[in-house]
Amino acid sequence: MRLTDSTHYKKLVITAVIGWNAVGYSDPVLAREGDVIRPYVSATYVYDDNLRRRSDKESDTSVVGRVGIILDKDISQQNFYANIGVNETKYNKNSELDNTGKDIVARWNWAVGSQFRGKVEYYKNEAMLPFADFRGVELNMRIQERKTFEANWRFHSSWRARFGVQRQDVEYDSQTLNAASFQENSQHVGLDYLAESGSKVGLVFTNGRGTRPFDRPAFFPGIGTVFVNNDYRQQSLKADILWLYSAKTRFEFLGGYVDRKHDSFSQRDFSGFNAHGNMVWSITDKTSFKTAAWRDANAISIVTASYVIDSGASASISYSATSKILLSTSARYQQLKFEGDITGQDQGRTDKNKVFSFGVTYSPLESLSFTTGLNRSLRDSTSPILNYNSTSISLTGRYEF
Q1: Cα–Cα distance, 268 to 317 (Å, whole number)
Q2: Residue 8: DSSP 8-state
Q3: Confidence band, pLDDT 50/70/90 cuts, at residue 297
Q4: Rounded to an integer, what distance in angstroms lies between the CA atom of residue 305 and that of residue 232?
Q5: First-to-last C-alpha distance (Å) of the chain
Q6: Structural domains in the chain?
Q7: Residue 120 CA to chain centroid, in angstroms?
Q8: φ, ψ of residue 226 in degrees (nearest 5)
Q9: Best-predicted range by mean pLDDT among 25-39, 62-76, 131-145?
Q10: How far apart are CA 107 and CA 72, in angstroms?
Q11: Distance between CA atoms of residues 232 and 171, nearest Å
């Protein structure tokens, strides 16, 4: 069945909002309606003028080949979805960085009657750690794994209770980043008021426990090397708001009080306000605009600081010039303040990151697309050796069977 132009416009715009989202290029998945099993292949050519994200630039080109399969099936009220892919990256100059990546998403959106709904999800990704996050020079693969269970009970036409548990694991294959590996177990409970318009207002309480299998080595003048335990417990109470202002505009907000306590060195503890908000505006059937702002205290594993204050804003816009051509552009500003450092290595460090992206997607066929992207990144750090700027250009072809 051939899609109407209006339907095709909307699918291209949705792809842009999800795939670009103010952080750069991502392969689009233009799902064909009614398909249950969809194998796909893609190839990406990338030129990067500063591969290792340093003040002294080194350019390189790479080719990334991907193969995968998507399963999307509805059975009564249940939906079963899986996306399994493998990719191979080859570099022209830095062949020691050649690597094989894997990604898995498996999800069951379940429902029992009209009152009970939820999801069971498994996610796993194995990929090279970006050099913007890693000061080393060797290949360093990161394995991220997440298991999620959620249940919602709509016990009244206007009220819903929810509960969920999640386990996250992050591992690094480089010996230099052993101490950055961690596991986090969290549980949340919430209560939502559901308006007839589709808007909602809710509260959610989350309790999390983060553990690291390896203590981090730290050198203290006059003392020597000490192995620091970075385990923590974090609790938060946040407002969760969805406001459907109109058929074309929606606002989302998740924010509130967060408290984190470490098992050792209490001077690294944190309490304060975290929040994330975004707005999506479908200006026309062809044009969509999205903006977001956030402030989060989070535990970034690859730094010596026990937590980082991450704040910033982003904006992106996509425009379907025709039923076959999509234009996308985005901008993102991020400030990272490294806190809770007791070693002195990252004490007082602040990074300011700027990312600008532009892309064009051409879909001559429903199953075939070509995307070219331009990405510009800059970092201004209080640690001068961490400053850099980079420009990359990519071209991707994708075919879905």
Answers
A1: 39
A2: H
A3: confident
A4: 13
A5: 15
A6: 5-400 (2.40.160)
A7: 19
A8: -125, 140
A9: 62-76
A10: 10
A11: 18
Q: What angle do CA 73, 78, 82 make, to 5 degrees?
A: 45
Distance CA 18, CA 7 (A): 17
Tell me, letter by letter, the H, E, C secondary structure of 292-331: EEEEEEECCCCCCCCEEEEEEEEEEEEEECCCCEEEEEEE
Confidence at residue 343, expressed as pLDDT on a 0 to 100 scale = 61
- The pLDDT value given to residue 331: 98
Q: What is the sign of the dihedral through the CA atoms of 97, 99, 105 and 106?
A: negative
DSSP letter for 19, please.
Answer: H
State whether residue 221 is helix, strand or coil.
Answer: coil
The C-alpha atoms of residue 299 and residue 132 are separated, in whole angstroms, by: 17
Euclidean distance between CA atoms 386 and 390, whole angstroms: 13
Residue type at position 72: D
Q: Are 16 and 25 in contact (CB under 8 A)?
A: no
d(CA 124, CA 146): 6
Both tokens assigned to 388 = 């850099």
Q: Are 184 and 208 in contact (CB under 8 A)?
A: yes
d(CA 155, CA 114): 10
pTM for the predicted model, two decimal places: 0.85
| Backbone dihedral angles phi then psi of residue 175, each to the nearest 5 degrees | -65, -30
CB contact set of 224 (below 8 Å; sequence gap of 6+):
none
Give the number of other CB atoms < 10 A from CB of residue 245. 12
Tell me how many helices (H) and strands (E) the chain has: 1, 20
**Beta-strand relationship, 307-320 and 287-298:** antiparallel
| Close Cβ partners of 222 (under 8 Å, ≥ 6 residues apart) | none
Please say whether the beta carbons of 45 and 320 come within 8 A: no
- CA 8/CA 30 separation, integer angstroms: 9
- Return d(Cα 224, Cα 292) in angstroms, integer: 44
Give the distance, in angstroms, between the CA of residue 248 and the centroid of all CA atoms in the same chain.
25
